[in-house]
Design brief:
The structure is a homodimer. In chain A, about 25% of the residues lie in helices and about 30% in strands. The first copy, chain A, is an alpha+beta fold and about 375 residues long. In chain A, α4 crosses α5.
């Protein structure tokens, strides 16, 4: 089958890597000649946000999907009209692309998400402080989001269509990845949890399973069911959640694609998010995704002050550790904050996992 | 690092697939434009048995290795002389390539292998029946090997340089995969066992760990140590073994490369033979390869009577089974006996494993 992916980054790379177990032809659309998928797919150089580029790329494919949500949706509608299978649906991509539509989707479908005001410009602000401003479009990896705490900070507001959202008093950040195939089979991965490295005060381990009580688990199950019913689309979706200090779960946002919070599934689950997504693209039976004990992930991010040809200092020490799996993304140039790879770790207990992750983190540095 | 592999078949494909976790440039030399590695490596079309083809291919690489042993060794010597790293050594490839040298290697290094006579032609035969004739060169996947049981069958003898070898009264067929890096670190995988499907009287499951007693394990450990000392080369080596009905272990033959008897390591061990081989090529710390319970593999082989565009009949049923992993090789055309893929299965007990493997085998058929 000819499978076309909009975007050729690390998510696409790990998808294709996993799916090399099967016989398909992989195509990617990405503007960067050295994109992570460049050498393992038939790459078309082009902008996935451009109507013509997406339409031309997709028209001879059996299925078109995305590894990033900032794609040209009009072209996806057109492709679907012309008979190309598009997963997930253009409707759900369009909804998720725009924070305003995304919030309205939660409201309409009784999915709990923080109270909000929609503004078209700065002048319309009428919302209690403190709040989060989420720009309607263009957000990614924390970009397009800012916290406004005081009256003085109001002047920092971006003058763009936005959602203003109540700041949740966060106890834990959680994530759940949902799979829906065209047959209507559904499944979800065990809930994962972002864990703060308290020493360095950084949020950077995602671990599985999350340490949550029955009430939290139940609230998430309800959210998952509501989302599945509302989405009306095959696809893999990552829902990022907040558990607040009163024990209530809120949806922060959803990604209509493979997600960083599912990377530990590569070795931590019976099948990974990449295998599951592949099966969705081909409408195959969904895979079992039971956990193999405790698993966690550390992102390898370019350190501040280093730009240029990447060096993974300390990586050889990491390779000596058992139950530790290095995943690099084939990016030659590092820059501050760039996601260059990740490391997955397995363990028998949560405590052992956190100790191992902290040790791995102390060993490796992404420099140049 | 620029890594060049002679051969672009399924072993190379699964190596590159695994190693996409790391940042390297992969090159393959293979005569088939549709070789399994064609789309995931920078492929040079050419014959790996040809001196000039191998020399030209290898000269700008950092390391050159093989995924098949029938390669031009003279060119590998030349490449090494010119400063290219060659793994495994041309010497050990040359020894293993030729059954006569291979037998002499076992004899010289006190590695137990069945009694033999070397012949240059049919007329020299002076060896007790029954015996196995192994042609000196060109053997692969059972080709170049025949059993001669009676005086009448002597006329079937191939009139080529050969090894004649005592027929072992086999209790079990075993395999052990050995890893040696340039630092001299060594490791080996748990011993695996070929299991006969008694219903169909076919040998086609390879399972791990083998069901063997302490004496057998001890004999294999001694063979492994002797091989490591004698090989004097970095590399990944698969030693195929016979356990005879008196409890003695014999070396049948050795492959200087990744091996079909290690495929279940993809999901069955903490790290696979492919990961281990990658680490050898880069002289990295060897990986832990502990077993995850019981694992086994079924080869997907083209059924008799079917040639043409492959169809994996029943594969969707297999995908419904938990702890079951399909690996296809990207070959579009099936023919009788062609290795098209394999399926790995995990289980908690040997009995459960064999039941699952037999069930999988009953479900899937490689036809067209």
């Amino acid at each position: 089958m000819k499978i076309g992916i909009l975007g050729g980054g690390q998510l696409g790379r790990m998808l294709i890597q996993e799916a090399l177990k099967y016989d398909d032809e992989w195509f990617t659309l990405d503007p960067a000649p050295d994109a992570p998928c460049a050498k393992i797919s038939d790459q078309t150089l082009g902008d996935f946000a451009d109507y013509d580029a997406v339409l031309n790329f997709g028209q001879d494919k059996d299925v078109v999907s995305v590894e990033i949500e900032h794609v040209n949706v009009a072209a996806l509608y057109e492709l679907r009209n012309s008979g190309v299978k598009v997963i997930p649906s253009p409707e759900i991509i369009e909804t998720i692309q725009q924070k305003i539509l995304q919030k309205q989707f939660y409201l309409q479908n009784d999915i709990p998400s923080p109270d909000f005001q929609i503004i078209q410009s700065k002048s319309e602000v009428n919302f209690p402080l403190p709040f989060v401003q989420k720009a309607n479009t263009g957000g990614y990896d924390g970009k397009g989001v800012q916290v406004i705490k005081t009256d003085a900070e109001l002047e920092n507001l971006w003058d763009v269509p936005s959602v203003l959202e109540t700041l949740v008093d966060i106890d834990k950040e959680l994530s759940v990845i949902i799979a829906i195939n065209e047959n209507g089979d559904t499944a979800h991965f065990p809930v994962t949890e972002m864990v703060a490295d308290t020493q360095l005060n950084l949020l950077d381990f995602n671990i599985c399973p999350a340490q949550i009580n029955n009430s939290t688990q139940q609230q998430i199950e309800v959210i998952v069911q509501k989302f599945i019913e509302a989405a009306k689309s095959a696809g893999l979706f990552a829902i990022e959640l907040f558990l607040d200090k009163n024990g209530k779960v809120w949806v922060n946002e959803t990604a209509p694609r493979l997600h960083n919070s599912g990377h530990q599934s590569q070795e931590g689950n019976a099948n990974s998010q990449f295998e599951q997504f592949y099966r969705i693209l081909k409408n195959l039976p969904l895979a079992n995704t039971d956990s193999r004990g405790f698993s966690g992930m550390l992102n390898l991010v370019g350190e501040a002050g280093y730009s240029g040809k990447v060096v993974y200092d300390g990586l050889e020490e990491v390779l000596k550790l058992p139950q530790t799996y290095v995943h690099l993304y084939g990016k030659t140039e590092t820059k501050p904050g760039r996601k260059m790879g990740h490391i997955n770790v397995l363990a028998d207990t949560r405590e052992e996992l956190l100790t191992k992750l902290a040790h791995v983190k102390s060993l490796v540095h992404v420099i140049n």
